Amino acid sequence: MKEISKLLGYREDVRVVDATLRDGGLVNDFYFSDDFVKALYQANIKAGVDYMEVGYKASKEMFDPTKFGKWKFSNDDDILEVFGPDPMIKLAVMADVGRCDFKNDIINKADSALSLIRVATYINTIPAAIEMIEDAHNKGYETSCNIMAITTAQEGDVKVALDMIGQSPVDVIYVVDSFGSLYPESLARLADLYLECGAKYNKKIGIHAHNNQQLAFANTIEAVGDGVDWLDATYFGMGRGAGNCSMENLLGFLRNPKYNLFPVLNFIESYMTQLKKDGVVWGYDLQYLMTGILNQHPRTAIQFTKEKRSDYTEFYKELIGLD
Amino acid sequence: MKEISKLLGYREDVRVVDATLRDGGLVNDFYFSDDFVKALYQANIKAGVDYMEVGYKASKEMFDPTKFGKWKFSNDDDILEVFGPDPMIKLAVMADVGRCDFKNDIINKADSALSLIRVATYINTIPAAIEMIEDAHNKGYETSCNIMAITTAQEGDVKVALDMIGQSPVDVIYVVDSFGSLYPESLARLADLYLECGAKYNKKIGIHAHNNQQLAFANTIEAVGDGVDWLDATYFGMGRGAGNCSMENLLGFLRNPKYNLFPVLNFIESYMTQLKKDGVVWGYDLQYLMTGILNQHPRTAIQFTKEKRSDYTEFYKELIGLD
């Protein structure tokens, strides 16, 4: 059992990362208004959030800029226009291995309002991730490595991957439960591997959870108790499929007085509920529970949602291959 | 950290209690059709659920039978009509201290289709609860004692209460997080007190969780890992306010092959989604999160919901008394 102090006190090293625009952007193809983004930025400042992820650095060769909002690409000009040259909060973008023209699209930190490049990779593309991490590091950024879909990887491979990443200049390594299939107990076991690597190579460890089994917040606070410092959350849990750890849950839990819940509630009332009314759909539902339980990619559940299906039992039979 | 076997194996002693009609009845004033109740009964049988709570034994002096569905009162005649004299699953009712005419309304087990009387009490009415437990025990029933709103009690008082209940003939003692304000770590500490009492007096321990902080399922599986055997859940999480631990989450987690998820999905698709369409409202929302974080009774949040308010920030200010 953990020490009492971990519930009532706090660790100075904890960092809260708002991933609303990035993971939430996967739900609405990144069509956020400037007004929305600016208000979110102000809310994050007042709430004491440490990092704000503004979107992806996606390749314009691979993705048509006319088919997505601007935060799919997060051009530095667009960032400057909204946040100015010297933001009051550290800004981050995500860059996917194989889906980012990082050599051109990630400019020198000296010329950018960004602070942190988050490199997202699968476990079979670690060398490519390290190349991107080194590139961003050399350009002057903080970096993180987010190994996605970790619940489909073998423990032996995870250890090797962590050892490779540990030797890179990366600052933070993330446990990413893309499928929302971890339980707090299995998360704790996985976090242990990451924390061992972090202790050996002097890296911080982060957690990015999905809410398929209504465990995104539970897994995040389990991780805090285990020694994980970097915590991703999104307002109202907005994110792909079942969504993420809710910012309002997280800031209601953290005890560091620099964090404030009220600005989060205010932003949700003013902006997030409107998104829901506009028909943007995310959050826990049975189809996501099923893919989470089965440790499957949520794409089938997302399609089920898009088609406005409600034949849950048929979907379950499709998933487990009864047909 | 817990043993790996606790995730992949199972304990024979675990019992799943379906509380849909009882806690869910608080949302729709117990107006469930016989068709609904019979289909739920069949779903529970197929799903391997161990106990089905059919409702309350509420006093007809205190509550007007014309203003509630019949499961508020759970007359033995009504139970017989729906379930027959020899149900294929053990049936339970809840009897509240001070709100139940137990001497008259709870008949001898030999004449009833019920198996289990669940006595609900606050910590300041333990002697009255014990009187009811003894009455039900002497009439031939299994009994549980559900100490509500436990997060507002002092640890010293909890210990005394548990010692008093431990000396009664009760079979199961429940941790009841009425306000949904426990975190898995605080639940684990509380469960430890109950489990100590259970070991001393040979009682089983149960958990009844609420979802105010999206932790009902997380707290329930934390409890399983800690040695708590009796687990309350409801279909689609239906229950007062933010609702309960979802049956579909729980049966997707438990590894005993006697439990089956599919009948649960089937019932939700056929019946629970219709309740939602009919305008019956329950489940996680910001107003419940706030009362959960603040360890307050959800009645203000329920009122907020009934009034269809969406001014979350005003509500928060009301709760913390800024006005």
Structural class designation of chain A: alpha/beta
Considering the protein shown, what is the CATH homologous superfamily of the largest domain in chain A? Aldolase class I
Note the overall shape of chain A: globular
Helix content of chain A: 40-55%
Number of strands of chain A: 8
Number of domains as seen in the coordinates of chain A: 2
Looking across the biggest beta sheet of chain A, what order are the strands in? Answer: 1-2-3-4-5-6-7-8
Over all CA atoms, what is the radius of gyration of chain A? 19 Å
Q: Assembly state here?
A: homodimer
Specify the number of helices of chain A.
14
The CATH first-level class of the largest domain in chain A comes to Alpha Beta
Structural notes for this entry:
- Chain A has 323 residues and is an alpha/beta fold.
- The first copy, chain A, has two domains: 11-277, Alpha-Beta Barrel (TIM Barrel); 286-319, no CATH class.
- Chain A is 43% helix and 14% strand.
- Chain A contains 14 helices and eight strands.
- In chain A, helix 4 (76-83) links the parallel strand 2 (51-56) and strand 3 (90-96).
- In chain A, helix 12 runs parallel beside helix 14 (312-319).
- The A-B interface holds A 1-2, 4, 6-7, 183-186, 188-189, 192, 211, 213-218, 221-222, 225, 246, 248-249, 252-253, 261-262, 265-266, 268-269, 273, 286, 289-290, 293, 310-313, 316 and B 1-2, 4, 6-7, 183-186, 188-189, 192, 211, 213-218, 221-222, 225, 246, 248-249, 252-253, 261-262, 265-266, 268-269, 273, 286, 289-290, 293, 310-313, 316.
